[in-house]
Specification:
The structure holds two protein chains of two kinds. Helix content of chain A is 0%, strand content 54%. Chain A has strands spanning 4-5, 10-14, 19-25, 32-38, 45-51, 56-59, 62-67, 72-77, 86-93, 100-101, 105-110. The interface between A and B is medium-sized, with 26 and 25 residues.
C-alpha cells in the first residue's frame, strides 16, 4: 500500500527553466509534508516542508504547494540550476509518526 | 558527532551469510530510523527507535532482519542468511525526537550499499 506516490521516475529540464516535481498521497491524516534531495552516494538531505494547514511555502528558489482536496503536492524550482540535478523524495508524516517516503524522481538539469 | 555515521559504506557478501550494519547517530538525538532503498525503489521504512520505548519493527521484511540500539546511541541492523533480494542501500537517520519541530529534523547517513552475490 503506497501511501505516498511519485509517479514520474525522471524529469529533464533545461537550465534556467522551472522544474515541477509532483507527489500524491492517500492518507488524509498526514499533517506534514517534506521534500528531500539526494545526490549519489550520499544520504537524503532536507529541502523544504509544509504544514497541512498551509497551501504554499517558499524558500528561495524552492516553493512547495499543497492541494489538500486533491491530496497532491508539488515542488517548484525556479530557475533550475545544474546543481539541482539529483533524486527528489517526497515524504509525509501523521502526527509523531515516522516519515513515509515516495519512490523518488530523478531530476536532470540540462545546460 | 557532527553527522550520522554508517559503516561499512559498502559490503559484498555471499548468499546465506549474516551481515551487520552499524549506525552512529548524532549525539543527543533520541530517535533513530533505518530505511532501505532497493534499485529503482523509494525509501522503505524498516524500524525506528525512540528513547527507551519499544522499537517500531513494523517495516522489517522478515524475521531474518533484526536491529538493536545499545545505550540509546549506536544501532546495529543484522540480516541473517542473506538473500539476493536483500541487496540495497541501507540508510540510517536520526532526529531529536518525534515531536520536535516542523522540519522534523531527520538527518541521514550516507548509507551502506549491501550486495548479496
Amino acid at each position: 500500500d503506497q501511501q505516498v506516490k511519485q509517479n514520474s521516475p525522471s524529469l529533464s529540464v533545461q537550465e534556467g527553466r522551472i522544474s515541477i516535481l509532483n507527489c500524491d498521497y492517500t492518507n488524509s491524516m498526514f499533517d506534514y509534508f517534506l521534500w528531500y534531495k539526494k545526490y549519489p552516494a550520499e544520504g537524503p538531505t532536507f529541502l523544504i516542508s509544509i504544514s497541512s494547514i498551509k497551501d504554499k511555502n517558499e524558500d528561495g528558489r524552492f516553493t512547495v504547494f499543497l492541494n489538500k482536496s486533491a491530496k497532491h503536492l508539488s515542488l517548484h524550482i525556479v530557475p533550475s540550476q545544474p546543481g539541482d540535478s539529483a533524486v527528489y523524495f517526497c515524504a509525509a508524516r501523521e502526527g509523531a509518526q515516522k516519515l513515509v517516503f515516495g519512490q523518488g524522481t530523478r531530476l536532470t538539469i540540462n545546460p | 558527532g557532527a553527522g550520522v555515521s554508517q559503516s561499512p559504506s559498502n559490503k559484498v557478501t555471499e548468499k546465506g551469510k549474516d551481515v551487520e550494519l552499524r549506525c552512529d547517530p548524532i549525539s543527543g538525538h533520541t530517535a533513530l530510523y533505518w530505511y532501505r532503498q532497493s534499485l529503482g525503489q523509494g525509501l522503505e521504512f524498516l524500524i525506528y527507535f525512540q528513547g527507551n520505548s519499544a522499537p517500531d519493527k513494523s517495516g522489517l521484511p522478515s524475521d531474518r532482519f533484526s536491529a538493536e540500539r545499545t545505550g540509546g546511541s549506536v544501532s546495529t541492523l543484522t540480516i541473517q542468511r542473506t538473500q539476493q533480494e536483500d541487496s540495497a542501500v541501507y540508510l540510517c537517520a536520526s532526529s531529536r525526537d518525534l515531536t520536535g519541530g516542523p522540519n522534523y529534523g531527520y538527518t541521514f547517513g550516507s548509507g551502506t550499499r549491501l550486495t548479496v552475490v
